[in-house]
Amino acid sequence: MITTSLPGGTWTLGGLTVTRFGYGAMQLAGPGVMGPPADRDGALAVLRTAVELGITHIDTSAAYGPLVTNELIREALHPYPEALHIVTKVGANRDQQGGWPPARDPESLRRSVHENLETLGLDVLDLVNLRLGDATGPRPGSVAEAFETLADLQRQGLIRHLGVSNATAEQVAEAQAIAPVVCVQNMYNLAHRRDDELIDALAGQGVAYVPFFPLGGFSPLQSSVLSRVAARLEATPMSVALAWLLRRSPNILLIPGTSSAAHLRENIAGAALSLSDDDLVELDTIGR
């Protein structure tokens, strides 16, 4: 059993116990999530600091770089601590312009799974999310062929658990009819709350919800209400936003990204901020 002083405690993803406060590795790649980092030693230090602080959930993808973040994770942390679980994504490639063209046909998915295994130095992937939609968000459409491909790789022993990313509620349900889904990874934060009903439904099923862009992504959260609450608590708006997410639902797992070990520590401290019921009522007005 994992004990942790990290905010939020732990959650069980299938049979994997992870800290609710995790780390997203996307920002370790170069500008636009392309190429190597400007400070390779600094990137390695962030990963090692995350594990030293007790984080047991690291999110990555072979598409980041491409391959860059996986290779950094392997260099920094392999052989991996037994408690550490690395979650990756498949379903998109990178083009020369830095775009994210879909790669959800069976051959591309199988190639991507093996690519993740090789670059991370693993024999089996703990959890693989199927990335759906596009850069603008989820898009309707069947996930059957793609998710059945991943379920087959799971039966072969190459993947322990499956999830979906950038998905509609209907696509989540379709995937669940094919194989167990242990997490859903969608865009969600204080100001972007389209998935409120989905989060509550998943919580009732014991399925994790992992918000990407928890702090607004490339356009940081800006709200007079958020700023007012933060000033009253003598905290930063980003601290309040992270703390709110942990309070929003027990099945929410955080994976804020950073390329700075100091910023990682600030994020952890911020997520531990105590919010009163009055604070929560006021913050709830932002996204509604």
Number of helices: 10
The strand order across the widest sheet is: 3-4-5-6-7-8-9
Distance between the termini: 38 Å
Q: Report the strand count.
A: 9
Shape: globular
**Mean pLDDT score:** 95
Give the helices and strands as they follow along the chain. Answer: EEEHEHEHEHEHEHEHHHH
The helix content, as a percent range, equals 25-40%
What value does the Rg take, in angstroms?
A: 18 Å
Biggest beta-sheet profile: 7 strands, parallel
Low-confidence stretches: none
Fraction of residues in β-strands:
15-25%
**Helix vs. strand class:** alpha/beta
Report what the structure shows.
The strands form two sheets. This protein has a seven-stranded parallel beta sheet with strand order 3-4-5-6-7-8-9. It has ten helices and nine strands. The N and C termini lie far apart (38 Å). It has helices spanning 40-52, 68-77, 106-120, 144-155, 169-176, 196-205, 224-233, 237-248, 261-271, 277-283, and strands at residues 10-13, 16-19, 23-24, 57-59, 85-90, 125-131, 159-165, 181-187, 208-212. The protein has 288 residues and is an alpha/beta fold.
